[in-house]
């Protein structure tokens, strides 16, 4: 497997913010803001669809700790947590990862989408999701 993040973890080649058994955090090569951090599971999972619940929970716990550190150590007034999973999401590296981006008032960054999806669903998408989840199903096929 030729995964960029797996290679960084295996070769100990990242600028580490945190390293734990299940998850780790490191600085990206081209940060969008001072302190921009990537949080990833140490084992390879492509995205939220194939990541076990316990690994996802551990990864999100580290995201939360990194975000808190940004507020305390960098005086960030907020954070954006960005992730993409699957080919329709513009996922750039097929390894689950969360960008934790520290934010400050007037920092000049906009991370919110500026447009709306052109995709249409014929009935109520919220009702469709609720019915699916009520059946106890976890993954769509």
TrEMBL record:
<dbReference type="InterPro" id="IPR036265">
    <property type="entry name" value="HIT-like_sf"/>
</dbReference>
<feature type="domain" description="HIT">
    <location>
        <begin position="4"/>
        <end position="110"/>
    </location>
</feature>
<keyword id="KW-0489">Methyltransferase</keyword>
<protein>
    <submittedName>
        <fullName>HIT family protein</fullName>
        <ecNumber>2.1.1.-</ecNumber>
    </submittedName>
</protein>
<dbReference type="InterPro" id="IPR019808">
    <property type="entry name" value="Histidine_triad_CS"/>
</dbReference>
<dbReference type="Pfam" id="PF01230">
    <property type="entry name" value="HIT"/>
</dbReference>
<dbReference type="GO" id="GO:0032259">
    <property type="term" value="P:methylation"/>
</dbReference>
<dbReference type="InterPro" id="IPR011146">
    <property type="entry name" value="HIT-like"/>
</dbReference>
<dbReference type="GO" id="GO:0008168">
    <property type="term" value="F:methyltransferase activity"/>
</dbReference>
<dbReference type="InterPro" id="IPR001310">
    <property type="entry name" value="Histidine_triad_HIT"/>
</dbReference>
<feature type="short sequence motif" description="Histidine triad motif">
    <location>
        <begin position="95"/>
        <end position="99"/>
    </location>
</feature>
<keyword id="KW-0808">Transferase</keyword>
